[in-house]
Amino acid sequence: MVLGIIRTLILFALVVVGLRLMGKRQVGQLQPYELVIVIMLSALAAIPMENTGVPLFSGLLPIFTLLVAQVALSYISLKSERARGIICGAPSVLIENGKIVEKELSRLRYNINDLLEQLRAKNMPNIADVEFAILETSGELSVIPKSQKRPVVPADMNLPTGYEGLPVTLIIDGYVFHKNLAKINLDAQWLASELKKFGVNSFKEVLFASLDTEGKLFYQVKSKAV
């Protein structure tokens, strides 16, 4: 039993490392060959987990081989546009200049109901409002609305806007991120004094705290804090 647990943990760690090496994309954003590798990794890892009679090395070798193949294919597709087209395919234009491209729908076996469903998911229920719809190699549909249907932004009205950066996380569940404080030239003493102004006397009471680029401190105490 102990041997089985150890083998399982080794294989689990290896598959997790392998998936991290493949990047941080979600399953729906993987290229076809990457999805195949993910499926094969899980299947290969399951064999030595279930059958302790299979040598661990025999289970690890094909997993390493797949990971090397994935890294190699990713590098090749990164360096060569032609290779990327062969390995990953090319995006397909389903709506061009406001018109449905019937030939492309037929080639991809992608019916109009599928297209309408994807457009609704992109908050574009009216196909007449779409200028371009592009089916990416990952299967995601990119939608470009007609210029008259795009949301108004400050640049359209020549309105000046200030810089908006990302808020800096300072506390999560009582833990203080001292490195983040140092990046903005502040320290825990300053943070403690600011929280005391709101009646918070301990970092442990804080569920979350952040500081935006305008210097405004946001915080929320834990529901069980006294």
- Give the strand order, joined by hyphens, for the main sheet: 2-1-3-4
Low-confidence stretches: none
* Overall morphology: flat
What does the largest sheet look like? 4 strands, antiparallel
What is the tally of helical segments?
8
Helical content band: 40-55%
What is the CA-based Rg, rounded?
A: 26 Å
Instruction: Kindly state the number of beta strands.
Output: 8
The N- and C-terminal alpha carbons lie at a distance of 46 Å
Instruction: Tell me the structural class.
Output: alpha+beta
Strand content: 15-25%
Helix and strand sequence: HHHHEEHHEEEEHHEE
- Domain count: 3
Q: Compute the average pLDDT.
A: 86
Verbal overview:
The chain has 226 residues and is α+β, with helices and mostly antiparallel strands. The chain has three domains: 2-86, no CATH class; 92-149, CRO Repressor (2-Layer Sandwich); 168-221, bsu07140 like domains (CRO Repressor). 46% of the residues lie in helices and 16% in strands. It has helices at 2-21, 32-50, 56-79, 81-88, 102-108, 112-121, 178-183, 188-196; strands spanning 92-96, 99-100, 130-135, 141-145, 168-172, 175-176, 206-211, 217-221. It has a four-stranded antiparallel beta sheet. The protein has a four-stranded antiparallel beta sheet with strand order 6-5-7-8. Helix 1 (2-21) runs parallel beside helix 3, helix 2 packs antiparallel against helix 3 (56-79) and helix 3 (56-79) packs across helix 4. The two termini are 46 Å apart. The mean pLDDT is 86.
